[in-house]
User: Fold Chaperone SurA from Glaciimonas immobilis.
Amino acid sequence: MNALITMRKTIKPRSSNQTHIAMIIASLLISTSSAWAQKPVSPLSPPLMDSPTTVAAPAARKPRAAGTPETIDSIAAVVNNEVITRQELALRLKDVIARMQGQGVEVPPPAELQKQLLERLILERAQVQAAKEAGLSVDDKMLDTSIGRIAEQNKLSMSDFRKQLDHDKISYTAFREDIRREILLQRLREREVDNKITITESEVDNYLTAEANNKQSQQAQQEFNLSQILVRVPENATPAQVSERRKRAEEVLQQLRSGGNFGKVAATYSDAPDALSGGELGWRAQDRLPKMFLDAIATLTPGQVTTILQSANGFHIVRLNDKRAAANTPKPDAAPVEQTHARHILIKVTPTVSAADAKRRLLELKDRLDNKAATFEDLAKLYSNDLSASKGGDLGWIYPGDTVPEFQRAMDTLKPGQISEPIQTPFGYHLIQVLERKTDTVSSDRKRLAARAAIRERKQEEATNDWLRELRDRAYVEYRTDDN
Assistant:
């Protein structure tokens, strides 16, 4: 399926103009989970430092002998060929504590929290290095577009958005670089995880059969609000290592059963990317949950936790926070909807193709189309940077909400046969042609497509955790003590 149709919206709209920007964007500074969770590309933290840097010295210092050189920063850890400085760690720790307090998560002891955060920074740095090795980058045009969408969906002009950042004592320059990094990591995860997930026809058949059985038994689709703690097991772990990690999970479960605060325990012990958010996974539809989780919470009431669950990634403990009937549960036999059959030519913006170049190329192609000098199909095959190029740019029948908003708005204004002007989306610039429209019920192909999306989402968390574990295990990491 081509990227345009499958792209998810990464920024959730907010209902109030008074949204506190720091709280909206802060969760990403400690997140290393995959795009499957659709987290906004909006972290809040100082930019990464690839080497030791000269910064202001901390207020509290140890006495030093006269003539002894003063250390104004030092190395906390070495990750492959780069370092994480103590100043960087301290600044990030300050932001994490502020976010946790703002979300009402009980803050663990500073030493435990710093240890957790250092592990997150190590994993983050390893991902950034992998992205560089893969030749991935984020240019200023894409970055500006992403920041503009963050401001727009928080109902703020760019001027007001920058004022809000100033109010929250956030450097706009650092903010831009943090977003650049998060977009980079998202693109890496798409490359290394999302594009490698396979779904068989038999899996789709089984999913649709189960869905039909649920309808026949009148089982309502449910949504669950969950939190989790993961005790990670290294790849190719020895039996002794597995036993040691299980013992740690048992100790964690005992703390919870003795009345320990789940959020605090997660922030202290969990190896999952969501640990510093108290382990919160948020609301998930039941068909988007791993079967292991769904079976384990089936008999729980809100507030209860599961026993220890073992997966390829390690040992999980899941807390059921709440459950509800799913809102807007898809109904395959619902009222007919309007569908659009469209095709497009995409020119991506890259380090070697600027936005102006992409737009100019499409204007030249449109001129050829307007003058009947070529067909849309032929030009798409020759010039489009999308997977649909081999089909002459044909995207098939598109349902409302299938595409990104910019594409949808432009497509909706076109009459059958009409070709748009160059349209900008997060993917680049497009020429869009509407071929025909129809109003119909959901087709069997559409049902199978929806089933694939649900299965993919169910698989993504485990696939992402597998990839992150492998990346972390491959990285050379050297921890530095205060005396180094």
Notes: The radius of gyration is 25 Å.
